[in-house]
Amino acid sequence: MTTQPTSGQTAAHPSFGEAFMTWLKIGCINFGGPAGQIAMMHRILVDEKKWIDEPRFLHALNFSMLLPGPEATQLATYVGWVLHGVRGGLTAGILFVLPGAFVMLGLSLLYAYGRGVGAIDGALFGIKAAVLVIVLEALIRIGKRALKSWLMVGLAALAFIAIFFFDLPFPLIVGAAALAGYGVSKSRPDLVGVSGTVDTIRTHEGNRWRHAIVALLVGLTLWWAPVAIAALTFGTSHVLVAIGLFFSKLAVVTFGGAYAVLAYMAQQVVQTHHWMTAPEMVDGLGLAETTPGPLILVTQFVGFLAAFRAPAPFSPLTAGLIGAALTTWVTFVPAILWIFAGAPFLEDLRANKRLAGALAAITAAVVGVILNLSVWFALHVLFGTVTEHHAGWLRWFAFDPAALDRHAALLAVVAALLAFRFHRGLLEVIVVMALLGIVSRYSF
Questions:
Q1: In the chain, at which end, N or C, are there fewer CB atoms within 10 A of the end residue's CB?
Q2: pLDDT score, position 310
Q3: pTM of structure
């Protein structure tokens, strides 16, 4: 696991100390979600520092998007690995996440202890409206990129129907889409957008299989050790074990970015585990949007509140801190593990058209899943009480149209104008909506 890739493709090779300070800077300023974070890394690493050239950066980005987990974090980990081997990859991955994790922890504490304070409740009310627009914006952006054939549109529609009306598990939808894309790519690769050739470059020398096996053994041990310790110490029914198992499962199926898995996660933590309410889940997403680091840090908010509300044998604060730490661990250790295990095979994966077809189909299905998230959030933010009903396999949500929260709807319209008409940045929209939420709290 100590092998290091050749650095012949890089235009400059920084010292480890210089790289450390740069990764720390990136970790503190990487606002704006995956698109903004990737653009920022390109500017710093390719254009300014010239530590990695354009082809390798783009290859690394494509590789990261093939994997489950937050792609921007994995891209940073891969570039760190290219520059300084394992210690460079660990440094880049950890520093990309750590500043945002500390900010998210502070916001979780403020949320847990500050509810009932007018200004805080008002800010959260305004942020909810911003979240609706942010998710809709992600839906449009990913849809434009992914839905380029009738097959992709059909997969997106089927994914929406499957998860919204039939409550099928997200992993099942991902698996079915992958199989469809894998099969179609052989006879009609154009339908999944993988026609043409793939240019490859050599990124690793040495014993690739030995490197991958060692990385897997070490990574899996680190990943599951805290969950096993919690199970042995507190029993398998303890909330910490449930947190560890649930978010470990998410780490395996988070293809398509954070917004894809949020739909599955939101409904599971609200309806299955009952760790929080739907409006609280929207609050968590809004808070995560305000922090540097990956959007998937919203999982830390969920883990904190879940343990905070079932603290035995700890105090609520201690339990919340442990729950947040455990959630962050099982979310990001696997993401970094995939990079260390798979990086030596980067070009083999890139050149596999059938695998590329499977991933393209997953991305299309993700559009349908994000549409489900958009509708689910909108119902819970705009209409007070929303009840779930079942008739055999069919599931639907009932609400009273007369119960429309006009203040929330007005704020959502304002957020939409800021984002789509005036093209304001994500963080700016959230701040403005939080301020408007405070004003509405004291004006009506």
A1: C
A2: 95
A3: 0.79
